[in-house]
């Protein structure tokens, strides 16, 4: 009975979303507060209904109720409880339910925290949000219903894809989806502004926190996904320029641009029209991300949903939402009031530069990801655009961004002084040289890597520059500087962390790619594998039994300078239900680097193919991501209102003070 | 009955909640409040100044900036205040009627179309009790415990093997059949059972090992249905299409028309015919279509498709193979199969790329590299 109740709750949510798509909009046009309030109530109702629906499906998964088709296909009664639950979204149908669940959550959040948004704007936003919801409810109910029943119920399920039987599945998709779906709020705000034909001061104050929230989750989701791929796929790579990864990276790039342009808009009321366009594009890219993963146009590591027939429906959704929003933009944007002027060299100017570069980078990834698809669709020719393309195009675009990053916060609003900014960054340049020299002393060549390390140090030092500048460190007594630094707005700290995170990630990437070590070979028990100052003694294989798999576990004793420092146990698991094998890598963290061991084939004569990697400073890649997200959290927690005012021309300020 | 009451209750509660604004007294509309925002901002500047967070000259500049915006906003607001239209009662009534009628109607229509209310009865799940008050898992566990204590009880293995088979635990099924044959001696049925388990493990591929087993089953009973069926499938997978056709037809010829096992045989034959038809249509009739070696279920699925779908299907199978190899490149024969498949589909570039990928993936292991190169030289569709 429970699954049927969940199914009906989903259907009711669709019915509510249809009402919420129309009634509040009519209310906003006719200034009828009663009709507008239907939007708020509808948003709450959708959220409650989705909780019921999601809860019912979770219950079915928890109880291994194989009369529900999606449970039968993706679960097994012997799986550990945590995977029983996570397999809910480890498949297409369930993950779409998670998607709309989060969408409903965001709708309810707007309804709850939107008390001080102008009523008509709020009603319009909630109506637009409901259009998206209605389309997705329909999509789920018609093409991918997680509540489809099987009669008679099978005795046992088909098990979850073994690659997905990992704690990573518990964290990665929800984070990513909160990121994707969170951008729907800025989209709805943008479309609502276009419908209303005006942008209030409240608009910018509202969009930025939502975009920031989505961005934080997307950052964490991508970092988590990258780490998951790193330890689970067994070849030690952390980023493959896989279309599915690109699909999450594109909204991240566009979202980053959106954050910065919304900043200009909030403080200076400039770049309004551009910000609206970015808000539309960011969510569009999120939708395309969903589309790429779901439609089966691309089969890749994330192959858990491959069904082209659904693609047509998603194409219709894309066409309606993206096409509709862009058409509305073309029609209404010219009538929007433009705001403040600024000189090219100014905080605004630097943010425009940031936006240009980020948009170009987004476009590059977009072309690299979708061009092969388009070409195949049109001519049937299959080409593959791989890492070389992205490394060649993306890297040159990101170098200027990284060089420009520390300048931004040091320039004043409206008109800035690039000379003064450069002077203040002197110590960042020094840090770059020192960093490169340290790397040279420790590792030597290649020169490109040294330059990149220098760039990383420069970005980190440059990010701290604003803090030093504003706290007066080195100019005033340390205690005063400390006191001032503590009094600085949290958003300043947030900026520092986020920008420094970029530098950390860069250093991690360079160290890992330039100086990582790798050994592959077939070894007999008793063999010793040397790598980067460590020695791994292979002691042999032993069988082990898991809940729904059997494993061959290899035991490796790790020695450093002849002293035992630990044991690593990589294994191969065999899942009988799906007749699949997975290789579980073993990781040992040493400082910021990691030893990584994965098993290949185990031969009849007991020799085992073993891949061993030493990855120096590899953890910095994800620590950088965490720092970026932490910066976002700090900035989000800063509830101050922000005004960007120019520094007064010096002589005028002095004149006023003497007067 | 309870079930329908719950659904009605949910509908009514939702309706009441969404229609709540119509029943309570309306609050006034909150208009664009730029003025409030700017006033807040001014207060903020004063607070920052007092706390020493911004310099006096900075505060002054900000104050001017905000005041400028404030004045403009106040002007706009004044202009806007004039238009406060009367609220049309009729429209409100129409809206409430729309919500109250449409919402349950949409819900009912969708649930009528999609729901399975008859399933809202108690379910038989894996936890359900069978005879003797045991769940299936418990029963299996009990028999398993029994054979652990009596490792020479061939009968128990013979009970377990088909159950493993049905649950898809092919490795366990293979082991169990092996035990049965070891203890109780071989019979055609037992050998065929082992063979089916081997095919299941190879995901539908009739491996050389499985063939040997089926040959044995056939030698024990020349009418063994599974052995004949799978040997025909093996011939089909080798590209010996006419042999396969003949073997299947022979099976049907000697069969009672209503025997249940004829269905898969008929389906297999239909698939053969459909493929031949497709081959006549294809531009280059010299190329065999069935290169990647379909599994039994693939064959079953493909037989229900038309030509265009089938080509897409074959492509998707090749893509699946490519994908599998991308995740685990340690499979020389798989690589060779992929290269052949691309060749058959006329994608020379991809075939070349796959060859290069394979050499890279297998590079660490000379023996495998040799196996790959050998398999590559063999004609497509040769025994794997």
Summary?
The complex is a heterodimer of chains A (659) and B (384). With 659 residues, chain A is α+β, with helices and mostly antiparallel strands. Chain A has helices spanning 2-30, 33-62, 69-74, 81-86, 92-113, 119-143, 167-196, 201-232, 243-268, 272-295, 308-332, 347-379, 387-404, 407-410, 418-424, 426-443, 447-471, 478-487, 490-515, 619-637, 650-658, and strands at residues 517-523, 528-531, 534-545, 550-560, 563-568, 571-575, 580-584, 586-590, 593-602, 608-615.
Description:
The complex is a heterodimer of chains A (659) and B (384). In chain A, strand 8 (586-590) and strand 9 (593-602) form a beta hairpin. Chain A has helices spanning 2-30, 33-62, 69-74, 81-86, 92-113, 119-143, 167-196, 201-232, 243-268, 272-295, 308-332, 347-379, 387-404, 407-410, 418-424, 426-443, 447-471, 478-487, 490-515, 619-637, 650-658, and strands spanning 517-523, 528-531, 534-545, 550-560, 563-568, 571-575, 580-584, 586-590, 593-602, 608-615. Chain A is globular. In chain A, strands 2, 3, 4, 5, 6 and 7 form a six-stranded antiparallel sheet that branches. A four-stranded antiparallel sheet of chain A has the order 1-10-9-8. Among the domains of chain A are: 1-165, no CATH class; 168-344 and 352-363, Four Helix Bundle (Hemerythrin (Met), subunit A); 518-615. Helices cover 64% and strands 11% of the residues of chain A. In chain A, helix 2 (33-62) packs parallel to helix 6 (119-143) and helix 9 packs antiparallel against helix 12. Chain B is mainly alpha-helical and 384 residues long. Among the domains of chain B are: 36-67, no CATH class; 133-281, Serine Threonine Protein Phosphatase 5, Tetratricopeptide repeat, CATH 1.25.40.10; 305-377, Serine Threonine Protein Phosphatase 5, Tetratricopeptide repeat. Helices cover 72% and strands 0% of the residues of chain B. In chain B, helix 16 packs parallel to helix 18 (366-377). The radius of gyration of chain B is 36 Å and the shape is elongated. Mean pLDDT of chain B is 74; it is low at 123-128, 283-296 and 380-384. At the A-B interface, helix 1, helix 2, helix 6, helix 8 and strand 1 of A face helix 1, helix 2, helix 3, helix 4 and helix 5 of B.
